Amino acid sequence: KKNDCPVKNQNQWIDSGGNAVYVVPLRALATEITNKLREKFSCQNCAMRRKEIDHFTLFGNTNKKMEKKLDTLGEYFEIPSSVLENIQEKYKCLLKSKYNMPCLDVMEYTGDTPFQPINARIIVTTPEKLDGCSRKLSFDYNFNLMIIDEIHLLEEERGAVIETLVARFIDKNVKNSTSNVKTPEDDLNNFKPIRIVGLSATVTNTADVAEFLKGPVFHFDDTYRQVPLKMHLIGAKETIDCSLAELEDRRRQYSSNDLQKIPDYKYSDSSKGKSRQKGFGAKIDRNKPIKINNFEEILVEKLLSVTGQTLIFVNSRYDCYKTASLIIRRIILKNEKQQGKTQTKTYDLDAYIRHGIGIHNAGMPKAERQRVESLFLKFELKYVICTKTLAWGLNMPAKNVILYKTKYYSDGQFRDVSLSDVLQIVGRAGRIDYINKEKHTTSDGKDETKHLENFGTAFIISDNLNFYTTKLKIKPPIESCLLRNMINCLNSQIGLETYMSLDSCIKWFKRTFLYVRGSKAPGNYGFNLERESLAFQNEESVPIEIQNYDVTIQNLMNMAITKLKNCNLITKSDLFQSTAEGRIASYYYIDFRTIGAILDFLDERFSIKKLTNDFKNLNVHENKKSQIEKTTVKNDPEIDSVRIQGKTLTNHQTLFDMQFRNLVFTEFSEIDLEILFLLFNMKEFSQISVRAEESESIIRDVQFFTSKKSFSSDKNHLNVSEITVSPIQKLIFLVFQYFRSIKPSIFSLVSDTNFIKKNLSRLLAATEQTALLKERFFVFKTAFLLRKRIDRGTNHKIQYQEIQNEIKIKKQMINEHFCTIFEVNMVKDETFAFFIASSVDERQNELKDDQEKIFHASMFHKKTTLYFAEDLKDFEITIFSENSPMVYKFKEDKIRNEIQKIHLTNLDGLIPYDLSFKKERIALIENDVQILIDSTLEKQKNWSTVSNILVIHDDKIKIKNDNSRIFHFNVSEIMYMIDEIISKSLDIRDIFIAGCFSLELYEKMHRFESAAITILERNDICKFLDSVID
Question: Cys bridge to 919: 74, 198, 335, 451, which one at CB 3.0-4.6 A?
Answer without folding.
Answer: 74
